[in-house]
Amino acid sequence: MKNLLIAMVFMALAACGNSITDKQKQEYATKGNEISQATFKALSEKLTEQMKLGGPAQAIPFCNVEALPLTQQLSDQYDVTIKRTSDKLRNPTNKPSLRELEIINNYHKLISEKKEITPIVEVDNNNNKHYYAPILLKANCLACHGKVDEFVTVKTDSIIKSLYPNDKAVGYNEGDLRGIWSITFE
Ligand code: HEC
Questions:
Q1: CA of residue 33 to ligand 1 center, whole Å
Q2: Span 25-45, mean pLDDT?
């Protein structure tokens, strides 16, 4: 009887399955890095091209139509779910989950304590692996995410607001935490 109980406890623990070895964590961190960088590269190449062609007036509507399909295309290619999310959203479709919001808030806390922020790998109750990494604001993001009337022109802001009436994603400084990458491996 006692042995049976012990066996059942072991089985229950194994069924939870929400633990991975340090080596696996490292592998997911490497994959997550690679995928987020490839997605960033794909998005910024298109964005830079459109900015050259017609500035924010051309690049913003382009992002509005192309950012999510492009991310989806890379998700299919890598067989994962790639998401960019933020506590100050532009596109409501990118809304953070509770866990993503916790991760963002924790990064804010670490930044305010002047601590290092690094990617996170964890397993959820369904045994899906998650990779999270900070997205920091760079100088070339300011034209569309910086302070209005300083980096974001009033005209650009009105284009943004016409496409995203509830936009919260302006007013950032260079180096600020803009959001996170959230990649799910199923
Ligand atoms: C030409 C204007 C433009 C530039 C430059 C730009 N963005 Fe954006 N950004 C947008 C638009 C438009 C969206 C909404 C895209 C969508 O509809 O999915 C967006 C969405 C995002 C999101 C997704 C979360 C959300 O709020 O919807 C992140 C993260 C982000 N941008 C970060 C950056 C970073 C980092 C840079 C610089 C490397 C940058 N952006 C440069 C226009 C821009």
A1: 19
A2: 97
- pLDDT one-digit tens code per residue, 42-80: 999 999 999 999 999 999 999 999 999 999 999 999 999
Confidence of residue 19 (pLDDT cuts 50, 70, 90): confident
Q: Domain locations in the chain?
A: 21-185
Q: What are phi and psi of 81, to 5 degrees?
A: -110, 120
Residues with CB under 6 A from ligand 1: 44, 47, 51, 56, 59-60, 63-64, 67-68, 84-86, 89-91, 94, 135, 137-138, 140-141, 143-145, 169, 178-179
Sheet containing 120-123: order of strands: 81-85, 177-185, 129-136, 120-123
Which DSSP letter does residue 152 get? B
Specify the pTM. 0.91
Nearest to 177 by CA among 111, 103, 94, 96: 111
Contacts of residue 145, defined as CB under 8 A and 6 or more positions apart, other chains included, come to: 137, 152, 169, 170, 172, 178
* Phi-psi sector, 43: left (phi>0), alpha (psi -120 to 50), beta: alpha
